[in-house]
Amino acid sequence: xxxxxxxxxxxxxxxxxxxxxxxxxxxxxxxxxxxxxxxxxxxxxxxxxxxxxxxxxxxxxxxxxxxxxxxxxxxxxxxxxxxxxxxxxxxxxxxxxxxxxxxxxxxxxxxxxxxxxxxxxxxxxxxxxxxxxxxxxxxxxxxxxxxxxxxxxxxxxxxxxxxxxxxxxxxxxxxxxxxxxxxxxxxxxx
Length: 190
Prior knowledge:
globular; single chain; 32% strand; 5 helices; Immunoglobulin-like; alpha+beta
């Protein structure tokens, strides 16, 4: 993996898998929505604000990457979690969470994708709160994140990141609830 590049408040890291020769890039805000911990309900896995490709749109998403057995509680977000995201003064939108491999990704619904993409580029801050089993209380104060250099970071990400494979479904991995439950059980060793 090449050294991450800092662009404003964002960090861009790209790597090529030596086995498949496929490239992948990750554009993540440097500040955490929720810092990784050594214990507690998150089981060590932090929550981050990232930019992801959803059907050709570069949209904000809240993620918990590379879940392990120690982060079983965090995995419950894939079943019942929602991230609330707001770019003040605009109104909030909710992003349902789903499982993507060993990661949880909370991304805008298809009908909110264009709005999320546009508001992100113009915003100087974001308010984020994750609710549902595996998250904090619904009355918790949202994390306030400062955004700088977003337009430049997204433009660089668009140039360097390979296009995401088309899932045809839209906002989530397209996994049925039963299959999602089976994946979670396999992930956590049951």
